[in-house]
Every structure is written in structure tokens, then in C-alpha cells.
Write a structure and sequence with these properties.
globular, five-stranded antiparallel sheet, 2 domains, alpha/beta, 318 residues
Length: 318
């Protein structure tokens, strides 16, 4: 794994992508995008995933990267297209911060499905963004790092008190499926496992898989009891020390687990397209944040459209 002080993307510019005309997005190691439906949150994740944006990485002299434009050394936010290749040390930093991006849009049925065995030495990651291959990942972890498997299992049974142990069984001679053994000895198959259990297991295994520079996650709160959301966010914060995590969420409970600099409100107007506003730059934030937790602040003043109670509105066209 990369060290805790590994470089990360601090600033992203996306232009002319889906509903996005031109927008700047400030990021932290763990960052959440919130806002109305159809505001552009998923489009931002997809733009970062595909590299159809420009990245700024702190600590390397304002170097930016765009997959269709070679490197330049203009300080952000000046992207004038100057083409200049970086020296080897800077290239290494840029690659560490941006090379390898993955998206997760987890689906319980995909995580329940039988998964083909992973050969020794093969890189570990989900076979699809829906979480396909989760049983095979746990089977591989059991054989490669039994200590890590046991640590996850111990935490799992502490969170789900009726569970005695996580179980893997052979769906076929070459496939594994997840299951449980309850405290009373009852065997539970994958079809009976709750969605919340599957989501938690998927997030818990990430730190033991192949390292991606950035992992993008759609709605990590799905299927989780409110009491489990804080635990998932704790797991993601640990992972974010080595792999940058950017999530899109509709849950105030997720936002409650974050700092003000880790939350961006995404809105969209017909004239300007997608707009990104750091939550700390919203109306009366200093006063409101003394009364509300971040998630409650968002819910209390959001209208589900332009979030006019939060986001300063642009002046009307003249």
C-alpha cells in the first residue's frame, strides 16, 4: 500500500462533459458530493473515472494533468495548454496520485452471486463496479492473509450480534459464495444475507485489495441501518489515508461523519450547468454550523432543486 502521506488530487476541473459546462471541484483525501438528483454528482464521478478532466496535485509546483493534453507547468487555475513534459520524479508523483481509478456502484445481487476463484498472485479487485466477485475476494484474502480475514470477521460479528462467523462455501468446483454461521449454529446462505451486511463487507475489504489512486463510490449508505453508516465511514476514512475516496451521497448521516472541508454541494442551473459549492462557503455557514451538524444543516436548508437556502444564486442575466 502507498504511505499515508501519498500525494492526492486536490483540485479537478471538468469541462463540456454530460451536463457539466465548466466546473472546479476542490477535493480532500475523503470527500463527499451532495445535492439534488440530476445535479451532476454522478457525472463528476464518471469524469474523474475516465480522466476527462484536469487534475491538480499539491506539492509538485502546480503541475496539472489532462489525458488528452500533455503536462504543463502553469499554476492552477491557469490551464493555457502549454505543453511541457515533467521530469521523472514529478511524473512519479503524478502517476501515484492519478493512475488507477475505480468506481463502485454496489448491487446486493451482484455481491451475492457465485464468483470464480482467483489464482495465487492475481491482483485483487472487484470484477465489476456492482461488486461482482466479492466472495472470491474473501476467499483469496483467507488464503493470502488469514490475519486480515480474521480481523474483518471479528469486526463483522461484533457489528451483527446474531452472527457467529463469516462463511465461504463452494457453489461449484471453481466458484465461491458468501454465507454466515449464526451463534446458534444455523447456516445462512447468500440469499438470506442482508444488504447491509454485503455493503459493509465490500467496504471492509477494500484496504486489502489492489491499490487504486482514487476510488469513487455511489451512495455508500445504501442498505445500511443508520447505526452502521458511521462504521462504514470509519472504514472509508482509514482507506482514504492510502487511496483517495470520493463519494456521492444523499444521506445526512454520511455527511455528519465528515469535516466541512470534505463536503461539496452540487447543484445545476440551466444557464451555468453544474455548480460545485464547498459547504463551508454556503450562506451563514459559520453561524449555522454552531447549531447544526453538517448533515442536518444540509437537510434543514436544502430545497432539492437549486438549494437556494444554501447556495448563493448567480445574478440574473442582463
Amino acid at each position: 500500500m502507498a504511505p499515508v502521506n501519498s500525494p492526492f488530487v486536490e483540485w479537478v476541473r471538468v469541462e463540456n462533459y454530460r451536463c457539466i459546462k465548466s466546473v472546479d471541484l476542490h477535493l480532500t483525501r475523503l470527500h463527499a458530493l451532495i445535492g439534488p438528483n440530476d445535479s451532476g454528482k454522478s457525472s463528476l464521478l464518471r469524469a474523474i473515472l475516465g480522466g476527462t478532466c484536469k487534475f491538480w496535485i499539491p506539492g509538485v509546483g502546480g503541475i496539472s494533468h489532462h489525458v488528452s493534453m500533455p503536462w504543463n507547468q502553469q499554476p492552477y487555475p491557469s490551464w493555457d495548454g502549454t505543453r511541457q513534459a515533467p521530469d521523472a520524479p514529478i511524473q512519479t508523483i503524478l502517476n501515484t496520485a492519478t493512475a488507477g481509478r475505480a468506481l463502485l456502484r454496489l448491487d446486493p445481487d451482484a455481491m451475492r452471486a457465485p464468483a470464480g476463484l482467483i489464482t495465487q498472485g492475481e491482483s485483487l479487485w472487484f470484477s465489476h463496479e456492482k461488486g461482482t466477485g466479492l466472495p472470491a475476494l474473501y476467499d483469496a484474502l483467507l488464503s493470502r492473509d488469514i490475519g486480515a480475514f480474521s480481523k474483518i470477521n471479528d469486526r463483522f460479528v461484533s457489528l451483527f450480534p446474531t452472527v457467529g462467523a463469516l462463511r465461504l462455501h463452494n457453489a461449484s468446483p471453481s466458484q465461491k459464495q458468501l454465507g454466515l454461521t449464526l451463534l446458534d449454529g444455523t447456516i445462512v446462505g447468500p440469499a438470506e444475507m442482508s444488504e447491509g451486511m454485503l455493503y459493509w463487507l465490500a467496504f471492509a475489504v477494500i484496504e486489502h485489495l489492489a491499490r487504486y489512486a482514487i476510488v469513487l463510490i455511489e451512495e455508500p449508505e445504501n442498505g445500511l441501518h443508520p447505526a452502521r453508516i458511521a462504521e462504514v465511514m470509519r472504514v472509508l476514512r482509514e482507506v482514504s489515508q492510502r487511496t483517495q475516496i470520493v463519494i456521492a451521497t444523499h444521506s445526512p448521516l454520511v455527511i455528519n461523519e465528515l469535516r466541512p472541508d470534505e463536503v461539496t454541494i452540487v447543484t445545476r442551473s440551466r444557464a451555468e450547468g453544474t455548480i460545485c459549492t464547498p459547504i463551508r462557503d454556503t450562506k451563514n455557514f459559520e453561524t449555522r454550523s454552531k447549531t447544526y451538524a453538517l448533515g442536518e444543516l444540509w437537510v434543514s436548508y436544502a430545497d432539492g432543486n437549486l438549494e437556494e437556502g444554501l447556495v448563493p444564486q448567480p445574478p440574473p442575466p442582463v
